[in-house]
């Protein structure tokens, strides 16, 4: 697991403190009951804070899984 | 260590930190307080920040209830129905008219401005009614519009239109009307501007995408101020000041009585501002004393100067000697009979301040910036923060005078037999059963009294209102005066009555009223007023309530931990000393001896 993923997992664990690291890797709005629109926004804000990337609110609807968000972070912040 | 003269917690909390805090439970205080947040937008992480700020400043977990998006009056009604002890209310421009926000497209043309103004005026009236209803049972922290108006004016942004100015005036008038409602605390826009610059508040992208309009730093600033307004820290009671290069410019022993100065001409205006501020504090009832290493005769002359902005009669005691400052401070605390934690010490010398701080670690010690006049406003703002209070009451005016009277009282009381001395005071105890929550003095006494305090428990304004509105509750406010002058309202007893018993949840009495048997008169009157056969006291020993414990111990054995202590009417009659004062009871209803709402029993 690279540093970007470690930092993103930290963001997820702030929003979903009950999820294990393995569960976070597979987390999505469909599989995690607590993942609602508020959780999505909070995750996006945390990513913005942690990685210094300005969240693209037009792609807000895409951020419904850990993997989707990881992809977005890697794209927006290639140096981690 | 000398406290820094600045905002102690000026840094913003990151969202990650706020989330961690909000998720935590404070170990020492597992209770969760139910608080409402009423606003017209989606509150999102404002809820997180309110929880986080409550934990950092109050070490208390909050359960925050919110309403529905876009309906502030409806949310205020929901909050009112839920009767929380505390409610935070935020009114943004879009709550006055949706066209003043970014999420509606109702038009910004010049033809609509009159209609927007009218609608805003009607909405303000609705909000005032809703906030007044809410404040009947809850403490309300109200924040007025914090976001910029949309680009609705026809001028360039550097210029205001009359329409925008009228809107701002309407909002200011709304907040002023709200501030006049008992129980409503309006957040300071000036303080908010210091913490959150106006241009860095709106997150338009977030507003459009989610309905939450604030940037993260602005969210944190608002949360911090709302929590401070809902749960204000207890105000400090006294200030001890140094003289040379603090109260005035110059060392009186070197430049002489006429050489010390505090005016603009002598480049000493910052000392004058400080004096002026001390005089204002004294007028509000704050105790002001002097601790100075100096020649007492010279200081007496200098303090006799008629051009002082904080004149000598406001300063008590004046401790001038060549001994340690910490010893002088100890003597002042003894004369005031208050704890070091309630006092602020100001001195230009870091060494003196450190010496006082080491001896009195709970005291707030501040540096006077004698060589940096530009930092004096910062010091005065910090002092305003430390001494800020919700209400000013008549007792504030009496406090300093009664402390001087206490000195005469102590001298006379030492020379006479207790019964004879007390009868000679010609005292009158007034016990008022008609006071309600609208009198701020009763709650103030409960929240700042330590020594004669039944259990040391503090209570918020919201909890106070709920308590007094409960069925069977009572409130007795005790005032006293004698030949040494009036002490004002100096004691409070509250609780409920049931089955021939008076159950007392809080009983406090100011230390200024000790040694006069006012507590005996109070208990006597309480039993008579409610025709009760016993008083059940919710007692808890604390580090500082020895005087209250000693009083109860004269009637019964006391437990070592929190428990109900019962004093029957029979035991009280058997063991009480003579009651030396006249008693004036105000209140009717169950008062068995009263023929009207008021009676006067001349005892001596």
Short synopsis of the structure:
Chain A is mainly alpha-helical and 80 residues long.
Descriptive notes:
- The complex is a heterodimer of chains A (80) and B (604).
- By secondary structure, chain A is mostly helical.
- Chain A has one domain (3-76): ACP-like (Non-ribosomal Peptide Synthetase Peptidyl Carrier Protein, Chain A).
- In chain A, 55% of the residues lie in helices and 0% in strands.
- Chain A contains four helices and no strands.
- Chain A has helices at residues 3-15, 21-25, 37-51, 66-76.
- In chain A, helix 1 runs antiparallel to helix 3 (37-51) and helix 1 crosses helix 4 (66-76).
- The longest helix of chain A has 15 residues, at 37-51.
- Chain A is globular.
- The mean pLDDT of chain A is 86.
- Chain B has 604 residues and is an alpha/beta fold.
- Chain B folds into three domains: 15-230, SGNH hydrolase (Rossmann fold, 3-Layer(aba) Sandwich); 238-387, HAD superfamily/HAD-like (Rossmann fold, 3-Layer(aba) Sandwich); 416-601, Gcn5-related N-acetyltransferase (GNAT) (Aminopeptidase, 3-Layer(aba) Sandwich), CATH 3.40.630.
- In chain B, 40% of the residues lie in helices and 19% in strands.
- In chain B, strands 11, 12, 13, 14, 15, 16, 17, 18 and 19 form a nine-stranded mixed sheet that branches. In chain B, strands 2-1-3-4-5 form a five-stranded parallel sheet, with helices on both faces. In chain B, strands 8-7-6-9-10 form a five-stranded parallel sheet.
- In chain B, strand 15, helix 20 and strand 16 form a beta-alpha-beta unit.
- In chain B, helix 2 (45-58) packs across helix 9, helix 3 (72-82) packs parallel to helix 5 (113-135) and helix 13 packs across helix 14.
- The two termini of chain B are 54 Å apart.
